[in-house]
Amino acid sequence: xxxxxxxxxxxxxPAGPVCSVLEGAHRxxxxxxxxxxxxxxxxxxxxEAGREVIVLEAAEIGERASGLNGGQVIPGVKVDPxxxxxxxxxxxxxxxxxxxxxxxDLVFDLIARHGIQCDAMRTGWIQPATSDAALAQLAxxxxxWWRRGEAIELLSRRxxxxxxxxxxxxxxLLDRRGGTVQPLAYVRGLAHALVRAGxxxxxxxxxxxxxxxxxxxxxxxxxxxxxxxxxxxxxNAYTDAxxxxxxxxxxxxxxxxxxxxxxxxxxxxxxxxxxxxxxDTWHLLRYFRLDVSGRLVxxxxxxxxxxxxxxxVQYHYHAVHDIYPQLRGIAFEYHWGGxxxxxxxxxxxxxxxxxxxLAGLGYNGRGVAMATVMGRLxxxxxxxxxxxxxxxxVTPVVPLPLHAxxxxxxxxxxxxxxxxxGVSRLxxxxxxxxxxxx
Length: 438
What we know:
8-stranded mixed beta sheet, 22% strand, 14 helices, 438 residues, alpha/beta, 34% helix, 6-stranded mixed beta sheet
């Protein structure tokens, strides 16, 4: 038996701009394929620089990942600062660390400058530790940020209990650079800002064919076509045959969320009372927050099935009750999911596929902040900023070996990691589990 799917965010988000399908033949200075955070941020920055821009979105604005995620605005990438500098060298790695660290600044600046009504709160992000080993790794992470001047706080078990209302964790990390947004409202707000800046958004207009013709790019859609010297592909986990080589650089992994009914006020005041969001350190991390109505929203890895079975949904119910047993008896009202683009090195990638053809993707679950920044990076590169001045590497496209098997491998990995996490949650092994990548 499957459950009806409806996103909590779709119920309360302000409407996006009125958009039309691309019809007929057009010429413009830039075309963005994909109307999520990456594409709209890139288009907005280009439009503000005086460029004529058309965004082609296959669905409606926010119908896919940018309107379906948890709305957590997290600084940094999944790789710790010292490791980034070891991977890329002290200069390039250091620049990427600084760019990623400041990603939430851009999100909240755009919200303020454009008056985006998206329940934005910059109260911080908590990473609760599920084991003593995980807490030791968080301590190393905090120390790396301290050396770079960031005021990250390492939390005791008691402090995490106070900040989350859950006795499930051993300690944790608090990063006050982070925050939350209503993700669908945020992406629709970016679309409104783009339209006000003179850009055009065409929905239900998937790019079917991309070809180089007479020194320009030609993009065909079901009812139209557009010619341009510049194309930015911003389709992330939903990248398709428009660039098959690019599609094979990421693995699309499902994430699924549930939301409770509004929690009674007395109980609500004890759960995340200061408004932070949290993502814990299980192998299959669980991310959770309250919305403005006092619902608990929790997500973790989902199912590859077209519709989740009741057992898949109940896995999320059990996760809520594992963290907050005091919520037993509170109904669950909303269920929804989307796809996350994972990369082999756990880093986002910026590519130049050909002259006048750029792409950015692969946010590994941290797309609200990093996709917004990637859009600005893509716009800057398109406007002529030198690679050495971007603060982010431009890398060659390297498809994953045996990508056709990646879906089966991801399914197997999810089941394996669920098993490991399940064993780790046995009472005798609480707070005694080894390394993670969260």
